[in-house]
Structure formats: structure tokens, C-alpha cells
Amino acid sequence: TYIIAEPCLDVLDKACIEECPVDCIYEGNRMLYIHPDECVDCGACEPVCPVEAIFYEDDVPEQWKDYTNANYEFFEDLGSPGGASKVGKIDKDATFVGAQPPRGD
Ligand code: F3S
Ligand code: F3S
């Protein structure tokens, strides 16, 4: 799977959503999350993120490893909805993400 990391936090550009052929990028309150079971590793989302927040799972920079767990945790109680557009914005974040101080300029 691919993982969305810290640069997305409080940015939520959403350019990635347009690229994903399987609609597996879900919106939380403070960032977006890639569904680890629904992502087919096509990689189309990665180059379009303007803040370079998206990484192949094995390539997530060391300082952002907690975001790997966050992408998994986000879906623990959601199961596999099978499409982000029909679900819409989800009013929560992974625990680690929700605990981060506000970002933004
Ligand atoms: Fe976030 Fe980048 Fe997508 S900022 S919403 S991962 S385009
Ligand atoms: Fe979609 Fe990106 Fe995975 S475009 S299929 S989330 S690699």
C-alpha cells in the first residue's frame, strides 16, 4: 500500500483523490488516509501531491513512520467501504494524527 504522511496534515490538497483509479483515499478531519487493503499500488497519487506527502509503504521516511500506523488504524472500525466518494468526509482522525499540534501558516 501507499501511505499518506505528515505533509498532508492540515493541508488536504486532495489532488491525490482525482488520480486514484480505485477511489481508496479517504478524508478525515485533518488529513487523508489511504485504505491499505483497497489500494492497488498503482502509484498514480504519489507524484501529484504538491507537498509530497505520499510514499510507498516501504519508503516512508523514518520520522514519519507513525503515519504508516495511522493509515492502518483509521480503517480499523470502518472495515472496507469499497469507495471513498460514497462515504464522504469521515469525522475523525487516527489517534496519533488527532494529537498533533495544529499546522499551517
Ligand atoms: Fe494530502 Fe497531498 Fe492528497 S496534501 S490530500 S496527500 S494531494
Ligand atoms: Fe490509489 Fe495511490 Fe493506491 S492512486 S491505488 S492510493 S497508490
From TrEMBL:
Superkingdom, taxonomy of origin: Bacteria
PROSITE patterns associated with the record: 4FE4S_FER_1, 4FE4S_FER_2
Record-given protein name: Ferredoxin
Membrane spanning residue stretches: none
Cofactor: [3Fe-4S] cluster; [4Fe-4S] cluster
A Pfam family that the UniProt record links to this protein: Fer4
Annotated cofactor note: Binds 1 [3Fe-4S] cluster.
UniProt keyword list: 3Fe-4S, 4Fe-4S, Electron transport, Iron, Iron-sulfur, Metal-binding, Repeat, Transport
Domain 4Fe-4S ferredoxin-type, first and last residues per copy: 30-59
NCBIfam families, A to Z: FdxA_Actino
Function description: Ferredoxins are iron-sulfur proteins that transfer electrons in a wide variety of metabolic reactions.
PANTHER family cross-referenced by the UniProt entry: FERREDOXIN, OXIDOREDUCTASE
